Amino acid sequence: MAQVRDQWTTRAGFILAAVGSAIGLGNIWRYPYVAYENGGGAFLIPYFFALLTAGIPILLLEYVLGHRSRGSSPISYRRLSQKWEWLGWWQALLAFVISTYYMIILAWALSYTWFSFGTQWGEDTESFFFGQYLGSNQAEGFWDIGGLQWSVVIPVVLLWAFVYFVMRRQAHRGIERMARIMMPILIGMMVVFTIRGITLEGATAGLNALLTPDFSALTDPNVWVAAYGQVFFSLSVGFATMITYASYLKKDEDLANSGLIAAFANSGFEFMAAIGIFGALGFLATQSGTEVEHVVGQTIGLAFVIFPRIISELPWLNSLFGVLFFGSLVFAGLTSVVSLVEPSVSAIRDKLGVARTTAVNWICGLAALVSLLYATNGGLIYLDVVDHYLNSYGLLIGAILMAVATAWTTRKIRDLQAHINQVSDIHIGNWWVLCVSVITPLVLIVMTGLNIVDEWKVPYGGYEISGLLVIGWGSLIITVIAAVIFQRLAWKTDDALTSHEKEGA
Ligand code: PHE
Question: Bridge-partner residues for 213, per DSSP?
Answer without folding.
Answer: 40
